[in-house]
Amino acid sequence: MDEGDSWRFGSVYKEYVAGMMAGVATVAVGHPFDTVKVQLQKHNTGADGVKYKGATHCAFRILKTEGVKGLYRGATSSFVGMSFEGSLAFGIYSQAKKYLQGKVVDRPNPLAIASSGAFSGAIISSILCPTELVKCRMQVQVVDSSLPGSNRYSGPIDCALKTMRYEGLTGIFRGGVATLLRESIGNAFFFSTYEHVRYYMHRSIRYTSSIPSPFTDVGIGIVSGGIGGIAFWSVVLPFDVAKTIIQTTSESTQTRNPFSALESIYRRAGIRGCYTGLGPTIARAFPANAAAIVAWELSCKMLGIMH
Predict the structure, then answer these.
(1) 3-state secondary structure 34-66
(2) How far out from the chain centre does Cα 299 lie?
(3) 270 φ/ψ sector (left φ>0, alpha ψ -120 to 50, else beta)
(4) What is the pLDDT of residues 63-98, one digit of tens each?
(5) Which among 86, 118, 84 has a CA at the least distance from the CA of 100?
(6) Phi-psi region for residue 168, left (φ > 0), alpha (ψ -120 to 50) or beta?
(7) Nearest residue to 125 via CA among 74, 81, 158
(8) How big is the chain by its Cα radius of gyration, in Å?
């Protein structure tokens, strides 16, 4: 390996490390909101489930019965999954964008950004699907006696092993199509929104201020990442609802087709049912994705990466 190849390998490696930091930050900030979202999707879309009055009622119920620990139920698999997801999502996105653009450019290239985001999302969906299945099943098993179901899993490893034991190897990839659709479409919207908001905010600040603040980049990262997260979930939440239903229902009669699952939800609860959990999802989207972008950009700066 010559000096040029060594430099390129080091640069690529650093991009994946920075992405991993983004994934860890996402879980640390966003997991409690995600737990509430999954509980609502599971128990407010079924024919027989006890319905929560809303996100606040759900969160208080969890805190009352399980404490803060309940809001982080399933976080272990999320940290593992999101570390890999963040590393691959941001790393693959950066490499794909560089390949399509050919060089670092000042103005966003919409086609290159959307294509790179969709490609990274499609790749990570195969890794994300089993970790999200474990996370969702851990999140919906309850100690609240007013809700149906019981604690079947002692931990994420026990959950994964029992899933494969009773449902086979394909059981751990239940909801794979819904995950693929959510991640590929969602990441195309996320990175497109993030890159354009970031570009126009930087341009506006250059025109209005000759002395940049040391906190400018952090502020722009918070806003652009947060808005990008809202764009992601506003577009693909129905696929996420379908994924939750498919992954948390182990019966063989439950369809694995996300469109069939959404059709069933629509017949029972209308369009509102397809957007179950919108409140906590949007509440989570801004801070979690803002944290991810800030962690990614700061890591890139510390590692000497230009993006």
Answers:
(1) HHHHHHHHHHCCCCCCCCCCCHHHHHHHHHHHH
(2) 20
(3) left
(4) 888 888 888 877 777 777 778 788 889 999 998 998
(5) 118
(6) left
(7) 81
(8) 20
The 10 Å CB-count burial string (b at 16+, else e) for 143-162 is: ebeebeeeeebeebeebbeb
Q: What share of the chain is helix, strand, coil (3-state, %, to 5)?
A: 80, 0, 20
pTM of the model: 0.80
Residue whose tokens read 């991640």: 183
| Calpha distance 188→118 (Å, rounded) | 5
Per-residue burial over 209-225, b if 16 or more Cβ lie within 10 Å, else e, is eeeeeeeebeebbbbbb
With contact defined as beta carbons under 8 Å apart, do 184 and 120 qualify? no
What's the distance, CA 133 to chain centroid? 13
Grouping H, G, I as helix, E, B as strand and the rest as coil, residue 215 is coil
Give the span between the Cα atoms of 223 and 198, in whole angstroms.
8
Six-digit token string for 222: 């918070």
Distance CA 112, CA 97 (A): 6
Core vs surface per residue 77-110: b (16+ CB within 10 A) or e: bbbbbbbbbbbbbbbbbbbbbbeeeeeeeeebee
Tokens of 124: 């990570």
Q: Which of 194, 291, 283 is nearest to 237 (CA)?
A: 283
In the structure, what pLDDT confidence band is assigned to residue 232 with cuts at 50, 70 and 90? very high
Asked whether 88 and 131 are in contact (CB, 8 A), the reply is: no
Q: Which of 149, 143, 147 is nearest to 70 (CA)?
A: 143
Other beta carbons less than 10 A from residue 169's beta carbon = 8
Other CB atoms within 10 Å distance of the CB of residue 112: 19
